Amino acid sequence: MVQFDSVLIFILFSSQVSAEVYNYSFPTNFAFGVASSAYQIEGAYNEDGRTDSIWDYNLHEKPSWVIDESNGDVACDSYHKWEEDVQLIKELGANFYRFSISWSRILPSAYKDTEVNEKGVAYYNNLINKLLDEGITPMVTIYHWDLPQSLQENGGWMNATIADNFVFYAKTLFQLFGDRVKHWITFNEPIEICEAGYSSDRKAPFLNAAGVGGYICSHNVLLSHGKTYREYEKLFKPTQRGQIGLSAASYWYEPKENSGLDAEASHRALLFSLGWYIHPLVKGNYPPIMIERIDEISKKEGFAESRLPKFTDSEIEMIRGSFDFIGLNHYTTVQGTFGTDFPEPSAYFDCGVKSSVDPEWEVAPTSSWLRNVPWGLRKLLVWIKNEYGNPPVLITENGWSSTATLDDTDRIRYINGYLLSVLQAIHEDGCNVLGYTHWSLLDNLEWLAGYSARFGLVDVDFNSSNKTRTPRKSYGVYQEIIKSRRINP
Ligand code: NOJ
Predict the structure, then answer these.
(1) CB of 396 closer than 8 Å to CB of 98
(2) CB of 335 closer than 6 A to ligand 1?
(3) Ligand 1 center from residue 446 Cα (angstroms)
(4) Which single residue of 230, 296, 430, 470 has CA 20 to 30 Å from 421?
(5) Run of H or E residues at 140
């Protein structure tokens, strides 16, 4: 007994939660899911009429973008193995499956008013119908980074006309699948689409227009989101009765020093990342601090006007309130401190916050940016509650990258810690959290990290022709959490 007590005290102390937290359970309407995205799992890149996305095009042109020179040509082969995937989700007991649709599989010519590809439609119909047969709710991400290459050749997200093409694509999905799909996410992580893709070369299309590209792209993404939401509201919602959100990515920024300056810097970094997208949705426009700083710095740099585009009054009206839930992708925490060592022009310079990590925080074996800091999620949920009036938040991604081992105790530690934080945010802070989505069901193509970073509850043997799937230890733990609706100490 003495021994047991000391182990328990050690665990409680080391994870910084009270014993009481283990008595909390997830509310009855709280939903659990798993997530994936088309390019990362489907493969079949040129089958049945699908055309190239910016990822196919760029990774074929220059394989060395990816550390192991891999690509998504085959990936997990989910285009052929989707029934096995659904079986795994069913056995897990998940309430919903968040997956994305490949734009160029549905509309190979990509532009508005072009023809739908019936074979692509059949693939998603089969998947959706099977999920529903098994009692799993489908949740669809309309855009998870795989822009058709033909649109990129016309400027991609830098060209304002893309909104018409996106709205056409989204409406096509509502028409085709909206009788059965009631949960839609327009965009996954606009900051990655735009900052990483257009301001740097960390994501396709590798445009590297720092300080300019990310702002223009984000503006067009937000307008596309708002227009899509309003079209759905007008034409589909009265009969389909679904819900639409957008998934924004955010770290928690913890002030590095216990000082007013670092607290202010960390708050500003949150407004420049999560607020960049959520502020417009909730309040109609970018955070005032972004508008002011970018305007001032742009002028000092000699630009004729702010590098941050402006919304018109009617656009503000359209965007304000264009969500039924806020999707939150959260993985980790960094420390924020006042100052900058970034070149101009750049969004980082505009923000003026340096980030670092506490070396004590456990680091993921295959992703150096990812540290296990569970309390960061709780603080972020409270920040959203206070900043935005406690909107409904769905955690649309959270996960850990291990090695290929089946004995993934590090992932188990991460899941337990982050879900305990969610329980505290709900029970102690009154945060409005609708559910939790683990990234990911399967190991998959982790973008430029290729197949080296393993995010799956299920291991995939990428060397086998069958892409053999084997559940890890964490799969069993998550299964148990979903069943018992609490965390087992
Ligand atoms: C965010 C992205 O949505 C997803 O595609 C990616 O694999 C995970 N985070 C892990 O980095």
Answers:
(1) yes
(2) no
(3) 7
(4) 470
(5) strand 137-143
12 Cα–ligand 1 center, Å: 30
Query: 132 near 180, Cβ under 8 Å?
Result: yes
322 alpha carbon – ligand 1 mean position (Å): 24
Residue 15 has pLDDT above 80, yes or no: no
The whole-number pLDDT of residue 16 equals 61
In 145-251 the beta strands, taken as DSSP E runs, fall at 183-188, 243-249
- pTM score of the predicted model: 0.97
Across residues 196-208, what is the average pLDDT? Answer: 98
Ligand 1 pocket mutation pick from 139, 330, 439 by most atoms within 8 angstroms of CB:
439
d(CA 478, CA 412): 8
The helix/strand/coil state of 410 is helix
For 410-427, how does the pLDDT look when each residue is reduced to its tens digit (9 = 90+)? Answer: 999 999 999 999 999 999
Q: Is the CB of 446 under 6 A from ligand 1?
A: yes
Question: Which of 102, 143, 251, 397 most suits a substitution to test ligand 1, by most atoms within 8 Å of the C-beta?
Answer: 397
> What ranges do the domains of the chain cover?
6-484
Active site residues: 189, 397
What's domain 6-484's architecture? Answer: Alpha-Beta Barrel (3.20)
Q: Does 439 sit in the ligand 1 pocket, CB within 6 Å?
A: yes
Element (H, E) at 97: strand 96-100
pLDDT-derived band at 19 (thresholds 50, 70, 90) equals confident
CA 236 to chain CA centroid, Å, is: 25
Q: Could you report the per-residue pLDDT of 76-98, keeping only the tens digit for each?
A: 999 999 999 999 999 999 999 99
The values of phi and psi at residue 199, to 5°, are -100, -10
Q: Cβ(122)–Cβ(106) under 8 Å?
A: no
pLDDT at 338 over 60: yes
Measured CA to CA, the distance from residue 273 to residue 331 in angstroms comes to: 14
- Give, using CA atoms, the residue closest to atom 7 of ligand 1: 446
